[in-house]
Amino acid sequence: MLEIIATxxxxxxxxxxxxxxxxxxxxxxxxxxxxxxxxxxxEVMKRVSIPVNVMIRPHAxxxxxxxxxxxxMIEDIKIAKKLGANGVxxxxxxxxxxxxxxxxxxxxxxxxxxxxxxxxxxxxSKNLIESVKILKKYPxxxxxxxxxxxxxxxxxxxxxEKTIENSENNPIILVGGGLTLNNVEHIIEYTKAxxxxxxxxxxxxxxxxxxxxxxxxxLLVKKVEKVSID
Length: 230
Prior knowledge:
The chain is an alpha/beta fold. It has helices spanning 9-17, 38-47, 67-82, 101-109, 128-135, 157-167, 184-191, 214-229; strands at residues 2-6, 22-25, 52-55, 87-90, 115-118, 141-146, 172-176, 195-198. It has a single domain (2-229), classed as Alpha-Beta Barrel (TIM Barrel), CATH 3.20.20. It is found in: Cytoplasm. This is PF03932 family protein CutC.
C-alpha cells in the first residue's frame, strides 16, 4: 500500500493516474502539512476515486493543542466527513511528551466512520514503543505513521521492525519520513512494512514546493510492487 501526499488537485490526479493507492491531503507541506481548505477537499474528492485521508493539524507550532485548537480540529473533522473523505490524519501530545489521551478521545468521538491515522507526532513522543501500546487501546486508530523516532529512518530500522511485529497490524504501522527511491526496497524488506508513505521524495528536486514528478512516482510504484511480490 503506497500513500502519497497531495497538496493540490493536480497532485491528487497524478497520484491516482500513476499508481498511488491512497492520498494524504494537506496544505503547507513546507510546514510538515496542515489542514487543507474546504474547497480543496471538496474538489479532490470529486476528481479522484482512490481513498483520501485529510490532515487535521491547525498549526505547526507544536503537537500540543489548546481547547480552542481542539474545537477547530473537531470542526475540520466534521468537514472531512461531510465531504466524503476516507479518513483523517491527526496526532496530539501533552506537555510531557505523552499521547494526550483525553483530547484524543474527544477527537475520535467525531471521527466515527472515518479511518484515523495517528501521524508522526508519535516520533516526537517521549517513548515510541509505549506510545504505540497506548494507541492500541483505541480501535478507531487504524494506523500509525512513523519513521521509528526522532533519528534518521535508517537508524531506526530495528525499532520499526519491532514495532511492526508487535503491532500485529492493529494498528497498521505506516512507515514514512525519510523514505527515498533509493532506500525504500531495503526498508520494506528489513521491517516487513505493509504500507509506506511518501512526500517530497516524489516531487521535483525533492522539494516541498515542487510538483509531483510522474517519472519518480512510476518508478516508486514499480519498486514497491516488486519488493511486495518478492
